[in-house]
Amino acid sequence: MNLFTYKWLPLCICLFLLVTACAPADPAPTDSEQQNTADNNDVSDLNWRVPDFEFTDQAGKTFGLKDLKGKVWLADFIFTRCPNVCPPMTANMAKVQDELKKAEVQVELVSFSVDPDYDKPDVLKAYAEKHQADFSNWHLLTGYSLDEITKMTKDTFKAQIAHQKGTSPDVPLLVTHPTQFYLIDGTGKVVRFYNGLQPDATQIAKDIKAMGK
Questions:
Q1: If we measure between CA atoms, which residue out of 77, 65, 103 comes closest to residue 21?
Q2: Where does residue 92 rank: exposed (0-12), middle (13-18), buried (19+ CB within 10 A)?
Q3: Residue limits of the Thioredoxin domain (predicted)?
């Protein structure tokens, strides 16, 4: 193995861990989905930057990157018809939201739907309410095409979104999408990511506080 291979091997492993699929054959999260990637989650040197966007949140209001300027935010990718990983991810985001508020850590939460044709604002709102979301600093976004969110996910977060038909009326859609929570600074640069199925709110709070130093 040459020097070039050694140099890029950790990044390749990191990117492999970023993508998991919502698969009905295994309704519980898989071992790979649960694997903690905290030891490899610092991507601040890779210059992953969120492009300018202006979408629609669960209240039907316009929300975009300009609303996040100067703020630290935590992002994830979900869809309301997800048969397995999205419900625990959303419940975990709600728990993280609660823990960060208790720790008096200022952060915005943004969830991008990967099923925008179905996930209209009222659908996202009802879904989030089931998971005790506090909308004061949590925006669930839609109002874009599947191509737009697929491109953003690939270009910025180095992960894939892929749709395929479900296997039953109860599971009409399967989507491959990232299951990470991404920490983004006030300039729109992704600095860290966390396992959305096993997030450590204490570590996230510590990382956010360190960004303010």
A1: 77
A2: buried
A3: 44-213
- Model pTM above 0.85: no
- 23 phi and psi, to 5 degrees? -125, 125
Q: Which two tokens stand for residue 193?
A: 């990511």
Burial class (CB in 10 A: 0-12, 13-18, 19+), 174: buried
Single out the residue of 157, 203, 151 nearest to residue 15, CA to CA: 157
79 alpha carbon, distance to own chain's centre: 11
* Range of the structural domain that residue 25 is part of: 3-211
CA distance 62 to 107: 19
Question: Tell me: the pLDDT tens digits for 47-71?
Answer: 999 999 999 999 999 999 999 999 9
Split into its structural domains, the chain has a count of 1
Structural contact between residues 89 and 196, judged by C-beta atoms closer than 8 angstroms: yes
Cβ–Cβ < 8 Å for 79, 113: yes
Here the CATH number for the domain that contains residue 145 is 3.40.30.10
* CB-neighbour burial class of residue 125 (10 A; exposed 0-12, middle 13-18, buried 19+): middle
